[in-house]
Design brief:
The chain is about 15% helix and about 30% strand. By secondary structure, the protein is α+β, with helices and mostly antiparallel strands. The chain has one domain (about 1-265): Roll (Hypothetical upf0131 protein ytfp).
Length: about 270
């Protein structure tokens, strides 16, 4: 499928769906859906060279990803680096506004990590504003998100956008826990609220993690934007997961009604 970014279902300011459901190549005027190659060795750990070699096998119809990039006069995969994109910067509306340039986005699976709302509000464009997404540990949890294969200028543009002019709010760091692996299927369902028990101090995921269908990307290779000024929202000791609390409900029912976890309390980095 090929479509225009402005025909995307939701703008970033009112979207209950933070990210696309399938791998795509974003360009300023078109979105190309990408088909993944067959995954054979799911226990293999991919470093950057191996990841980019594997990514070169993604295709739109019969056209390989690198060829699509060349057709749009964009840097090829050899000039790109993986960056986790868990929130509005994966929204085609926002990428078009940012004039980010051609950017491949591949679906991945988080393991023992979750997407959660940063304890901040970006009110530059709309009222009440947009909440960005950061990452926290969550033992036993899994969910789907995206990695971008970005050039260094694109990585810089993503972090600068999220920083709102404040260089100390967001940083692209490398995780020292959890796992991020390629996901071939786009229908991954995360645990429900009833799959999480709470003893007053710790959350436990009681559901069993599905069998992996893609290889792990080495944590030493992937950059992860983290909100390092205030961290993530503290929902009475619990994590406010994006998968369970959409942006509007978070803003209207939780935001500024509690405190925040410091970022290094909820995630470890290298």
């Amino acid at each position: 499928m090929e479509t225009n970014p402005r025909l995307w279902t939701y703008s970033s300011s009112n979207s209950p769906v933070l990210i696309p459901h399938t791998s795509i190549l974003f360009t300023q005027n078109h979105i190309f859906t990408l088909e993944s190659p067959a995954f054979h060795n799911v226990e293999k750990e991919l470093h950057r060279t191996e990841l980019l070699e594997f990514a070169s096998k993604y295709h739109h119809e019969q056209t390989k990803l690198d060829t699509l990039l060349q057709q749009h006069q964009a840097p090829t995969l050899s000039e790109r680096f993986p960056i986790l994109i868990a929130g509005e910067c994966a929204n085609p509306y926002r990428m078009q506004d940012m004039n980010i340039g051609p950017l491949p986005l591949l679906i991945v699976r988080l393991e023992h990590l979750c997407r959660t709302w940063a304890d901040s509000l970006d009110a530059r464009e709309v009222k009440p504003g947009i909440h960005h997404v950061t990452i926290a540990r969550s033992e036993g949890w899994w969910e789907q998100t995206m990695i971008g294969l970005a050039t260094k200028p694109q990585m810089k543009a993503i972090i600068e956008w999220m920083n709102e002019g404040n260089r100390d709010s967001w940083k692209a760091l490398k995780l020292d826990e959890g796992a991020i692996r390629l996901q071939s299927q786009s229908n991954l369902v995360c645990p429900t609220t009833s799959d999480i028990s709470w003893d007053g101090e710790q959350e436990t995921v009681t559901a069993s993690m599905p069998t992996a269908d893609g290889p792990i990307i080495s944590n030493s290779e992937i950059f992860v934007p983290l909100h390092v000024r205030l961290g993530c929202y503290n929902n009475r000791g619990r994590i406010a997961r994006c998968s369970h609390i959409n942006q509007r409900d978070f803003h209207e029912k939780l935001f500024r009604r509690g405190s925040s976890f410091k970022w290094n309390e909820v995630i470890s980095t290298k």
